[in-house]
Write a structure and sequence with these properties.
Fumarylacetoacetate hydrolase, domain 2; 7 helices; 14% helix; 12-stranded mixed sheet; binds magnesium ion; 294 residues; alpha+beta
């Protein structure tokens, strides 16, 4: 199943996406639940409750404003750095310079704040006066269903509710300046997500093509099979001593081809259009705009 969160008639709703991706059937959710988007469905499922029934006529996707499937995650988004060999190599002189010996042992894990999530077609605001090194990162997003702690690799996939697509937008200079990455990853609007959430029974998260285009030019193209740490390993690692909750999100890292790795580096500027697509899930496509000057 594919579930979308969207604005229609002035209020937020959650709906089932049609097979052709062209229409949505709204679900019967109280406004307070619908406000939380697909997260409300995940939490219902975790409580063992039935999914709400469809309630209303199909609505064309073209007639609504798609929100991120989870517009405000319950807490920070877990993110993985340096998770493709070729990407680790392209940034070994900059972002990963102090970690080259650790590539094969432990993943880099950082977080983005929940409030930086925006919809699949919303603008990304460049933080004018704060950074002029804004970069894109195409990524597969894992959505946790059943929570747990100390989850084993063998059990990990049972905890995956589904998947979506994110662009882990990054201010490279800020990322490196502060040692910890969270600030450079968490500017307002820096996490386009969508176009919807796809349940685990309808998508193979361990074999999927991830691509990114900037103004129509293909910049990233890899399969998640090339990840250094696969999804079961990431869930096992992050849940070591830390309880994962229904609706927790894990952005699984980006392939080679980011702007910082180009010679010379190619950073994003106002007017640029970035498309991130995962085959079988769909795409987010966002225009960069100048935000308020600092
Ligand atoms: Mg990333």
């Amino acid at each position: 199943m594919r579930y979308a969160t969207y604005l229609s008639g002035g209020r937020r709703q959650v709906g089932v996406v049609s097979d052709d991706g062209q229409s949505l059937r709204p679900l019967a959710l109280a406004p307070r639940e619908a406000e939380r988007g697909v997260l409300a469905l995940i939490e219902r499922s975790a409580r063992g409750e039935d999914m709400p029934p469809v309630d209303g006529a199909p609505v064309p996707v073209a007639d609504v404003h798609l929100d991120a499937p989870i517009p405000l995650p319950r807490r920070n988004i877990w993110c993985v750095g340096r998770n493709y060999h070729a990407h680790a190599k392209e940034l070994q002189a900059s972002v990963f310079k102090d970690n080259s010996a650790a590539v094969e042992s432990w993943p880099i894990v950082f977080t983005k704040v929940p409030e930086c999530v925006v919809g699949p077609h919303d603008d990304v605001q460049l933080p004018v006066g704060v950074s002029d090194q804004i970069d894109y990162e195409a990524e597969l997003l894992v959505i946790i269903g059943a929570g747990g702690k100390n989850i084993s690799r063998a059990d990990a996939m049972k905890h995956v509710w589904g998947y979506s697509v994110v662009n882990d937008v990054t201010a490279r200079d800020v990322q490196m300046r502060h040692q910890q990455w969270d600030m450079g990853k968490s500017f307002d609007t820096f996490c386009p997500m969508g176009p919807w959430a796809v349940t685990a029974d309808a998508f193979d998260g361990n074999s999927a093509r991830v691509r990114c285009w900037v103004n129509g030019e293909l910049r990233q193209d890899a399969n998640v099979e090339n990840m250094i740490f696969d999804i079961p390993t990431l869930i096992e690692t992050i849940s070591r001593g830390i309880t994962l909750y229904p609706g927790d999100l894990i952005a699984t890292g980006t392939p080679a081809g980011v702007g910082m790795g180009m010679k010379p580096p190619q950073y994003l500027k106002a007017g640029d259009r970035v498309r991130v697509e995962v085959d079988g899930l769909g795409a987010v496509e966002n225009v960069m705009v100048a935000g308020d000057a600092c």
